[in-house]
Amino acid sequence: QVQLVESGGGLVQAGGSLRLSCAASGSMSSINTMNWYRQAPGKQRELVAQISSDSPTAYVDSVRGRFTISRDNAKNTVYLQMNSLKPEDTAVYYCNAIITINSYWGQGTQVTVSS
Q: What gap in Å lies between CA 70 and CA 85, rounded to an integer?
């Protein structure tokens, strides 16, 4: 069982930066993949960034080059550094952990980008 707690969301102007954190309650060594998803009002939840246990990363096209996902296994934490934010990045951001066939979710953190 893994519990995830996100933090770092907030209100920022377009072009600004935020760093989201996702703290896992258990050891991250058992986690295969960590993901950041987001869901904007009226839209489906979409996968934004992914990092595997051996640290390869992947990004949705709309954030590639602006967002960076990283993990600190010693702190049981995954980060999402978001730069050059755009109003269309406004959404609730969720942390997700995959352990074998199980999927765990955090409660989400709101990111609002003003134009």
A: 18
Are 19 and 79 spatial neighbours (Cβ–Cβ below 8 Å)? yes
Residue 59: exposure state from Cβ atoms within 10 A (0-12, 13-18, ≥19): middle
Rounded Cα distance, 22 and 24, in Å: 6
List CB contacts of 39: < 8 A, sequence separation 6 or more. Answer: 45, 46, 91, 92, 94, 108
Dist. CA 75–CA 85, nearest whole Å = 26
Q: How many CA atoms lie within 13 A of 2 on its CB side?
A: 27
Contact 21/79 with Cβ under 8 angstroms? yes
Over residues 46-77, the pLDDT tens digits come to: 999 999 988 899 999 999 999 999 998 888 89
- Which tens digits make up the pLDDT trace of 23-46? 998 766 778 899 999 999 999 999
Distance CA 75, CA 28 (A): 9
